[in-house]
Amino acid sequence: METIHIQGGIPLQGKVRIQGSKNAALPILAACLLMEDVSFLRNCPRIADVEAMIELLQCLGCSMHWRREGLEVNTRQFNCGALPEKAVRGMRSSVFLWGALLGRCGEFSLEYPGGCVIGNRPVDMHIWALEQLGARFQQEESRLYAYAPHLSGAYIRLPISSVGVTENIILAALSAQGDTYVEGAAKEPEIIALCDFLNRCGAWIEGAGTEHLHVVGGRRLYGTEYTIPADRIVAGTYLFATIGTGGRVLLEQAPVKHMGETIRVAEDMGAVLYLTSEGIYVQGPSRPRSIRLETAPYPGFPTDLQSIVLAVETVGEGRSKITERIFENRFRIVPQLQKMGADIEVEDSICAHVCGVNALKGAHLHGEELRGGAALVIAGLMADGESRVDGVSYIMRGYENICRDFKELGARVSGE
User: Theoretical Cys-Cys bridge with 40: which of 12, 61, 191, 225, CB 3.0 to 4.6 Å?
Assistant: First the structure.
């Protein structure tokens, strides 16, 4: 599927099940390399990024099989082989393999990772953090070589909170001699999920979800069964889509306890929310209220939902101000929204001033990254007339089937 066709102007109605978390599944898949055993991951999302990670693990000799309820991962035949350049360059999340490969192999040689064009995401802090554990790196053009014959526990104070760096430290520290202490660790729910999985595999990690992590090195790990938590970003995507279209939707299995700031912003926009044992029931307003919003590391408002809120506020009442504090290139969808009649001004590349219009008009749109692509689909749902969204491959990296989900909620969408 390369293009999504949308006939807009229809309020979303019904219920939709929230898929497993992309940002939890990827580091957990990397963590499976640390054991010579079989694990079963329930609720693992069948998305492009997970399929790319599966391909990488298969290149290393792992056996991967989709079952009815999840993914079976067998790492007993793991070998330290070469990884395909195309797969590594095309997926930013391949950086999660670094800590695991150092722990299992003591070395690796990889192309630099790729991914979405949402800003400068250097790997320097990953390199620095792993060097604190004893790794050494050599850079040659586009290739990176690392070796660590002996990883040692360390005290690491992160200068800024980083989810990926925190996860890489955890994965490498499990194979180190001695204990590792991390100050300034990321607190995201995906860190909690990774540590929960590893502790079930025999690891000893304390402090997940706080700034202070303690990882005991050298423990033997074994396979387990684990259920990937629901994706809070996908839940937020469908929540704000319901607000933008003035619909009524039940978000089944939405991870309520990890969506505090998302829920607060949704209520500020005029939504009525009912938090139940089934998930979140959302009743959208006739028109979103204007807001002031700044992204921040968890538990703040997630940067991955910023472009989606921006799209919804194009038809909001009054003027909204949306400030991006995580990535410097998160307003790439603004010219696309302006093609639809949106009134948006971007200040210093970090702040968008949005003056709500009565309605957007359908247009031919092009997505350039994962969440921005989803935001353009939502803009098409809200717009009068027909829209086409290209760049669907980006959207497929994080959503199992966004067309199916919106179609089940009554939207007129189709892919080709």
Answer: 225
Report how far residue 269's alpha carbon sits from residue 273's, in angstroms, rounded to the nearest whole number: 11
Bridge-based pairing state of the strands 136-140 and 107-111: unpaired
Range with lowest mean pLDDT among 36-50, 52-66, 77-91, 316-330: 77-91
Lowest mean pLDDT among 108-122, 142-156, 175-189: 108-122
Q: Using CA atoms, how far apart are residues 38 and 63, in angstroms rounded to an integer?
A: 9
Q: Phi first, then psi: what are they for 220, rounded to 5°?
A: -75, 135
Cα of first residue to Cα of last residue in the chain, in angstroms, is 5
pLDDT in tens, 198-252: 999 999 999 999 999 999 999 999 999 999 999 999 999 999 999 999 999 999 9
Q: Report which residue type is found at 362.
A: G
Please confirm, yes or no, whether 116 is among the known catalytic residues: yes
What CATH architecture is 22-227?
Alpha-beta prism (3.65)
For 271-299, write each residue's pLDDT tens digit.
Answer: 999 999 999 999 999 999 999 999 999 99
Adjacent-strand bridge partners of 181: 155, 214
Among 44, 62, 116, 195, the one annotated catalytic: 116
Q: What is the pLDDT of residue 123?
A: 85
Please state the pTM of the whole predicted model. 0.95
Domain 3-19+230-415, classified CATH 3.40.50.360, yes or no: no
